[in-house]
Structure formats: structure tokens, C-alpha cells
Amino acid sequence: MSKYKPRVVKHPVKVTRGDSKKIVYRVIRNIQQIKNSQTLGTTRINKQIYMVKKDGIGWVVV
Predict the structure, then answer these.
(1) Which of 9, 11, 42, 52 is buried deepest, with most CB atoms within 10 A?
(2) Residues 36, 46: contact at Cβ < 8 Å?
């Protein structure tokens, strides 16, 4: 019997560096709902962990 693994869901993350805005698809982990209806999570971009928040249908780096 193989152990059940939940499927990995990748979400669009909007990364802004200088003038360039790029959307990358990453796995969002540790999703938490804050009291003031803000949704926060963490993601790994280029081997670094960033905090992201929900913005519309996508996520943005905080």
C-alpha cells in the first residue's frame, strides 16, 4: 500500500524587481488567515523563502 500524498498545487506569484513584473508559479505553504481578513503564506523562489500575501486571484511578495 502506497501512502497517500496530496497533490501539489502551484499558485501564481507576482514578483516585482525594479521595473519588471513577472508572474511565477510556486507552491504556497503555511497558508494562514489573519484576523483582518488577510491571507498569508510562504513560498520558495530561487532557493530563498519569501512571505507572500493573497492579492485577488494571485499572490504578491510581502
Answers:
(1) 52
(2) no
